[in-house]
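Issue 218. Parser rejects a valid record. Input:
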Amino acid sequence: MTFIILFLAAIWAGAQNALAGGGSFITLPLLILSGMNPRAANITSTIALFPGQVASGWTGRDLAAGAVGLSLRALVIISLLGGALGAGLLLVTSPAFFARLLPWLILFATIVFAWGSFAPRRPDAGHLGTAGVTAAQFCISVYGGYFGGGIGFLMLAALTASGVTLRVAGATKNVLAAVMNASAVAIFLFSPEVNWPTAAVYSIGAILGGIIGGHMVRKVNERVLRLLVVLIGVALTVGLFIRGG
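Output the parser choked on:
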């Protein structure tokens, strides 16, 4: 019964990622509720959702591009290094400390997700140069390898602030998200905390959900889905703070 629930949740998460983003807000709490400690749940969730990210990045690879003097290859290298560093930091973080840190990470991710989903677009936003994009992408990649919630909106903000069009920025952030998680997954593969049966169930469900979401993209109200993710994030944050207190 647990695996059935996780599989259905993974389908939802895969469809959510394809339609509006925020799939990890669904997978992570269920893994914690299934009995895993928060750090192990985060590692397992990252591995499980990775195939779907690769599929999204590969699908839009032709539109992906560099930014302000940085080639796409340079952004890929920055993302690989940052993702590996973030994953390494997670593995040296004690499970108890990560459990205390998790509510703050989810609170931050929820705020970023809400801001990216509902804040008005500003075409006159500040312009980032080469150094700014390099620093921003590296920091986002470290955060992505460590936790990852909200990285899509953070990358969209950095790329569009550098002058990249929204359409190209969307494709580029999908490629870079897959890349930074590839380095994290390569490190997490050696972690004894990975729950492989659960990761396999989640991966299959997420891929199936991604396919379903791709077909539903024109039929579903995206703003409603984003609002649902924000509400889940708020509820999860409150619940974790109460649990930790």
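Fixed in the parser; the record now loads. The first helix runs from residue 2 to 19.
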